[in-house]
């Protein structure tokens, strides 16, 4: 028994050392070439003032360290936080998911042109084969890691065959190594929502789900097919590689000309026209017409609605401070929210990153409030170790990379109770076989039930809709468990791990 426990102890000591020595995973962008850090904080001069903060819809760890101190002060002193949508609200999440699907009895197989559907199937197969590498790096891929990566893949694509074509395009665009590795990190908007709620503030939505979802559903499918083909033209040669997005947008947000970035970027997640291979003038025209429609609906129309919501709030008798945290793109470019407020006579000033705003400090546990999964919670170890199916190797490779070690430990402690849990989808995989004249491909096609994330609050507040009672569904995709000596050893390892942490913290 002691002989078996000793390697585990050595492994845990190495893990502690790695956690100390390895650099942080958070992004930090220091402006170079004498560039000044951008500010996305505005103050509407009223009594009390209303603040506007332009966010980016990215994992909070990439940006939180670079959020200016005055923004954090405003978050602390405000009694109300207003976000675009309350993605932590189960009803909102459920409606957003439902909005993405085709009408009843329709599938992508019946909607997409045959050749395009075959390309999508083949692309999914290639991406599924990349998942083990994205998750485990250069570690040996064994049966256990293959099961994990396959289940995660099915959970991320969900019931994809029922998606509308435009939402299929967005799904395909999102399947990158970076997104897979950061899947459990809340977006900055969600982080702010949870943190504010944990601090006892009122969190309210300025929109309803229809305003974000339905414009995409009104797109002409024929033109969406063109966009999907061009996206696959771009991605297919990269499918056997990392398909990793860059952080240049974050650098531009912090230090560069974000206004020009927003104005030049299409709404659909497509590469720039110069990167799309063999783009004809007709195809370019179709993509441009899609973008023009979405800019008018997703940007300009929403800007008008948001500015009206803010002006309605300004006209009320109130004695509390509000912070609006919405996408930075709504504060730059033509017909933005700030311009519309100024046009109506309101005084709106952009604050520099160095301007001090007095206010109470944020609580020390702000990270755990906004990202509950960042806190380790001891679980029943037997509930987190999957049972391997017959004919699958049951051993763990003798050499594990730091990423693999961290993921194994995470599977024991993660608050979501399983590393296979993805925010809103529970999947039961089935298999669909594809036979064509040119190839025979097998792709796993899951059937899914949508289980939106829950919130700790029992009520959701909105500036645009009446209060509604939340529902709660705590179901998660938890693999079945087995017992045995190795799990008891694992429990001893977990205990030793915490003893080590206590000793190191005491020293």
From TrEMBL:
Family: Belongs to the TIKI family.
Role, per record: Metalloprotease that acts as a negative regulator of the Wnt signaling pathway.
Gene name in the database record: 100633175
Keywords, in A-Z order: Cell membrane, Glycoprotein, Hydrolase, Membrane, Metal-binding, Metalloprotease, Protease, Signal, Transmembrane, Transmembrane helix, Wnt signaling pathway
InterPro entries assigned to the protein according to its UniProt record, in alphabetical order: TIKI1/2-like (IPR040230), TraB/PrgY/GumN_fam (IPR002816)
Molecular function terms, GO-annotated: metal ion binding; metalloendopeptidase activity
GO-annotated biological processes: negative regulation of Wnt signaling pathway; proteolysis; Wnt signaling pathway
Protein's organism: Amphimedon queenslandica
Record text on cofactor binding: Divalent metal cations. Mn(2+) or Co(2+).
EC number: 3.4.-.-
Transmembrane segments: 485-503
Example of a GO cellular component annotation carried by this entry: plasma membrane
Biased composition (Low complexity): 432-468
Name of the protein in question: Metalloprotease TIKI homolog
Cofactor(s) in the UniProt record: Co(2+); Mn(2+)
Leader peptide range in chain numbering: 1-27
Protein location: Cell membrane; Membrane
Membrane topology per record: Single-pass type I membrane protein
Positions of the UniProt region annotated as Disordered: 432-474
């Amino acid at each position: 028994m002691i002989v078996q426990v000793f390697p585990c102890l050595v492994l845990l000591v190495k893990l502690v050392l790695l956690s100390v020595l390895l650099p942080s995973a958070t992004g930090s962008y220091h402006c170079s070439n004498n560039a000044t850090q951008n500010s996305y904080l505005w103050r509407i001069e009223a009594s009390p003032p209303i603040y506007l903060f332009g966010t980016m819809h990215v994992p909070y760890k990439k940006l939180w360290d670079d959020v200016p101190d005055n923004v954090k002060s405003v978050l602390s002193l405000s009694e109300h936080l207003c976000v675009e949508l309350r993605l932590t609200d189960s009803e909102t999440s459920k409606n957003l998911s439902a909005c993405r699907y085709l009408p009843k009895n329709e599938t992508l197989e019946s909607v997409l042109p045959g050749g395009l559907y075959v390309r999508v199937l083949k692309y999914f197969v290639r991406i599924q084969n990349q998942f083990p590498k994205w998750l485990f790096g250069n570690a040996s891929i064994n049966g256990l890691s293959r099961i994990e990566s396959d289940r995660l893949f099915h959970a991320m694509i969900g019931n994809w065959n029922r998606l509308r074509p435009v939402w299929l395009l967005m799904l395909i665009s999102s399947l990158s190594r970076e997104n897979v590795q950061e899947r459990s990190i809340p977006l900055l908007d969600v982080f702010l929502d949870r943190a504010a709620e944990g601090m006892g503030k009122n969190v309210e939505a300025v929109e309803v789900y229809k305003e974000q979802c339905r414009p995409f559903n009104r797109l002409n499918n024929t033109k969406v097919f063109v966009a999907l083909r061009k996206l696959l033209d771009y991605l297919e040669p990269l499918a056997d590689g990392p398909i990793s997005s860059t952080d240049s947008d974050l650098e531009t947000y912090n230090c560069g000309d974000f206004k020009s970035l927003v104005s030049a970027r299409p709404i659909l997640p497509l590469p720039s026209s110069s990167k799309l291979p063999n783009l004809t003038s007709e195809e370019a025209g179709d993509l441009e017409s899609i973008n023009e429609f979405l800019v008018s609906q997703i940007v300009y129309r929403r800007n008008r609605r948001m500015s009206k919501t803010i002006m309605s709030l300004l006209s009320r008798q109130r004695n509390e401070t509000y912070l609006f945290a919405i996408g930075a793109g709504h504060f730059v470019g033509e017909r933005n929210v700030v311009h519309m407020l100024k046009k109506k006579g309101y005084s709106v000033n952009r604050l520099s990153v160095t301007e001090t705003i007095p206010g109470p400090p944020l609580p020390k546990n702000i990270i755990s409030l906004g990202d509950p999964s960042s806190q380790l919670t001891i679980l029943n170890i037997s509930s987190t170790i999957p049972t391997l199916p017959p004919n699958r190797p049951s051993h763990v490779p003798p050499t594990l990379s730091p990423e693999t070690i961290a993921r194994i430990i995470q599977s024991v402690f993660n608050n979501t109770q399983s590393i296979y849990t993805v925010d809103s989808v529970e999947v039961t995989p089935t298999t669909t076989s594809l036979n064509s004249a040119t190839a025979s491909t097998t792709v796993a096609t899951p059937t899914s039930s949508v289980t939106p994330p829950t919130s700790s609050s029992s009520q959701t507040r909105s500036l645009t809709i009446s209060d509604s009672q939340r529902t709660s569904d705590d179901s998660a995709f938890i693999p079945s468990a087995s017992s045995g000596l190795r799990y008891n050893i694992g429990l001893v390892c977990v205990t030793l791990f915490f003893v080590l942490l206590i000793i190191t913290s005491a020293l």
